[in-house]
């Protein structure tokens, strides 16, 4: 998938991590700062990577999932929320009283699965329930669209939030980047 950021141009996500699959995905990449994520321990994937690829231990995470339920979330006092879908991706943005984005996240549907991504709360707005609100708003939309399972890749920090919302970690997730 295209990401389009200077240090994160694109991303391959593998559902199964074995040597042939990792080598095949890596061989298709010729653009620097393309990532590859796979459900495998970071140290196990390293020998399968061709020249130019590195394992980014700091970006390794956890593959998490949850059975989705609707909860009817309400934005915390002092904040407003918007939900929009563009080209198959649903975005939730939470703004403060001044109109600045305080928290946001996105989700895409793949059949009955909803893939959550890029859930971020700005530093000045943390510990106010905004991350939980974004996750619940995205989940409500996913359920309304027929999804029953949510999946995401979590950092160690994000994992703590997601676990409070009922998400379960199923495996480690290696993060690799192409730096020729």
TrEMBL record:
Matches recorded under SUPFAM superfamilies: Acyl-CoA N-acyltransferases (Nat) (SSF55729)
Domain N-acetyltransferase: 43-180
Transferase as UniProt keyword: yes
Gene3D superfamilies per UniProt: 3.40.630.30
Keywords on record: Transferase
One Pfam family cited in the UniProt record for this chain: Acetyltransf_1
Protein name: GNAT family N-acetyltransferase
Originating organism: Streptomyces albireticuli
Lineage of producing organism: Bacteria, Bacillati, Actinomycetota, Actinomycetes, Kitasatosporales
